[in-house]
Amino acid sequence: MLNAPEASPTGRNFLTxxxxxxxxxLQVSVANRLPLPGGVTPDLVLLTVxxxxxVNGPLAGLVAxxxxxxxxxxxxxxxxxxxxYALAYCLIGYICGQASDEMxxxxxxxxxxxxxxALAATVLYAGTGMLLGDPRASWTIVRRVVPLQVLxxxxxxxxxxxxxLRVTRRYERGERPSRDRxxxxxxxxxxxxxxxx
Length: 197
Fold this sequence. Notes:
By secondary structure, this protein is mainly α.
């Protein structure tokens, strides 16, 4: 029987970087342009960080959150102090990564992680804005934005989290294109023919 190759750390890191870049592109080009009520959009980058943390654990979630947050801080139309998203996503990645062991036992863990992550990230982002004197960050705005942000993130989470989980788990299982499947089928066929001869 053929054994699936073990995933290499370099390949896993490359896949994580690709997933984050795709999330950033979709956030800027699609999600930020959605005309949703309240002027709030789903945070696809946060959802991606949560999914990566749930798959890879707290340390990988922390690193993915920092990298994704820093990229979100500098990608246009960034109009805030650099480092606010990096701090928020870094902490959310670490905290959600703590729940990675529960993923296989409970199917609702991703939804709770998304809801808690969206709530904590929005409040943390606004809190750092208030500390840094951002005039757009006030408790009245936070009270208006937080429920909509959590709602939109939870609605978008099945699509984003499912896609990230599917891509990363497919890579972890070592699934390859159809050429490897054809080789496995040919090996099974040869073993069946050899036993009949």
